[in-house]
Amino acid sequence: MVLSDKSIREELAKGRIIIEPLFEDCIQPASIDLHLDRKILIFKPPGSPAYIDVRHNMEHLNEPVEIDEGNAFLLNPGEFVLASTLESITLPDDIVGRLEGKSSLGRIGLLIHSTAGYVDPGWKGHLTIELSNVVKLPITLYYKMKIGQISFLRLTSPAERLYGTAELGSKYQGQVEPTASRYYKDFGGRS
User: From the candidates 69, 130, 160, 167, which is the catalytic residue?
Assistant: First the structure.
């Protein structure tokens, strides 16, 4: 069941869902608007070999940049970057989050996630978002602009193993800025 604005406010008041900072005008009928933080990871042209091997650490393919207050970052056609939400989010053991784009941004060709729209129970941290420009014109991105929204669903029972527990091998718990893929750790952590 998707939580309504009333239920979201109740969970926030109880401290079960924590969103910091939280702007009151961002609580929508069944979601909360999220904002773009200033740090972005852009992909650098690879050297040799010119492909991505998912068995190896890929952090060398990313270059951090920051969006200055009031200035735009141009996301070029076909470009893909990793960014982060301004908000830190903490979820309890019986609620999951669903990250979605803003329809107004989708209508101009800005997609905010390719696959990473699911936020597990027990999550703590800023969300890394996957920004893609699928149109033929550059799109401007601004620090603190509304970039997406998160809705919440209640589980049938509390999860037995929360995101971040050691046995799950959770790779991104507590992240505070956009984080490059750590998929290589599924292959034994080769670098």
Answer: 130
